[in-house]
Amino acid sequence: VDWSLVTVIPTDEVVEAGDPGALSLKRRFAPLGAAVHALADADALAFPADLVWLRAGRHGQVAGLWPGPDLQNAFFSPRRAVPLLPDPAPAGQAAPALVLTRSAILSARAIVMTLFGEGERRVVEEALADGAGSRFPVGRLLAEAEQAIDLHWCP
Question: Residue 20's pLDDT is what?
Answer without folding.
Answer: 65
